[in-house]
């Protein structure tokens, strides 16, 4: 993300560009992991573009917030693992974007929060649903009700991010850690990883018996893959597997 004059805030043009990027990523079979990062030092995403929103009438606001919600859903629905690299401020819609990713890495000095109530708003792009799944209902309510900002280390302690790392001189410590994490995922069987993501995302929404059925369907799709056969052969031959995503 690189909208420096507006701190990567989510305006109409920027949101359209993000939709276009997601469309390309979704259908690119060479993509194994997606990392969301900022080119603007000190900020991941400052949230909605409130200057732009101030020019909208009530109907336009409702339509645009729905589009933001759809954007976060599209991020969550990417078939490959996604990692948010939070090296600076991730506020409001910016944190909701990170919550839509599978994994989050933050610099310990990063600041994040669902601050909408401090602006007379409430989270409208999935924050009220995704934050409780990360930190639990009680903490999610506290953070949303107060609009409090927390740093990366606090976020790690409550389970909001997977890793918190000290910031470096370049200001991209979270991105570097996210790359390391991506490189751990990269060698694994692509279809198995995709099916694992699908089973978790769909299974968490239903009761345990239905979740087990979803897992079974995902597993069944993986059985006939060449990668599964390759994994078995590599184990038998005591060599690293060579997965091809088929």
TrEMBL record:
List, alphabetically, the PROSITE patterns matched. Answer: ENOYL_COA_HYDRATASE (PS00166)
Q: Which residues form a coiled coil?
A: none
Q: What is one term from the GO cellular component aspect held by the record?
A: mitochondrion
Record-linked InterPro entries: ClpP/crotonase-like_dom_sf, Enoyl-CoA_hyd/isom_CS, Enoyl-CoA_hydra/iso, Enoyl-CoA_hydra_C
Q: Which UniProt keywords apply?
A: Acetylation, Lyase, Mitochondrion, Transit peptide
| The keyword Magnesium is annotated on this UniProt entry | no
Q: Name one GO biological process term.
A: fatty acid beta-oxidation
Q: Mind telling me which PANTHER family this protein's record contains?
A: ENOYL-COA HYDRATASE DOMAIN-CONTAINING PROTEIN 2, MITOCHONDRIAL (PTHR11941:SF44), ENOYL-COA HYDRATASE-RELATED (PTHR11941)
UniProt lists the family membership as follows: Belongs to the enoyl-CoA hydratase/isomerase family.
Name of the protein: Enoyl-CoA hydratase domain-containing protein 2, mitochondrial
Q: Which organism is this protein's natural source?
A: Aythya fuligula (Tufted duck)
Gene of this entry: ECHDC2
């Amino acid at each position: 993300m690189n909208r420096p004059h507006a701190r990567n805030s989510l305006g109409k043009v920027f949101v359209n560009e993000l939709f276009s990027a997601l469309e390309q990523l979704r259908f690119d079979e060479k993509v194994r992991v997606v990392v969301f990062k900022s080119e603007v030092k000190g900020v991941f995403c400052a949230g909605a573009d409130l200057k732009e929103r101030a020019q909208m009438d009530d109907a336009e606001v409702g339509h645009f917030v729905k589009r933001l919600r759809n954007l976060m859903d599209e991020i969550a629905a990417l078939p490959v693992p996604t990692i948010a690299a939070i090296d600076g401020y991730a506020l409001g819609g910016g944190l909701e974007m990170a919550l839509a990713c599978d994994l989050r890495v933050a610099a310990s000095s990063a600041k994040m929060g669902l601050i909408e109530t401090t602006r007379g708003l409430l989270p409208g792009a999935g924050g009220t649903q995704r934050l409780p799944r990360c930190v639990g209902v009680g903490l999610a309510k506290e953070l949303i009700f107060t609009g409090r900002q927390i740093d990366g280390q606090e976020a790690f302690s409550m389970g909001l991010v997977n890793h918190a790392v000290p910031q470096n001189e370049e200001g991209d410590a979270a991105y570097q850690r996210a790359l390391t994490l991506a490189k751990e995922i990269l060698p694994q069987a692509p279809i198995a990883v995709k099916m694992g993501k699908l089973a978790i995302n769909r299974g968490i929404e239903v009761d345990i018996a239905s979740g087990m059925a979803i897992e079974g369907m995902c597993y069944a799709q993986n059985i006939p893959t060449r990668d599964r056969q390759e994994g078995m052969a590599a184990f038998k031959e005591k060599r690293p597997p060579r997965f091809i995503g088929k």
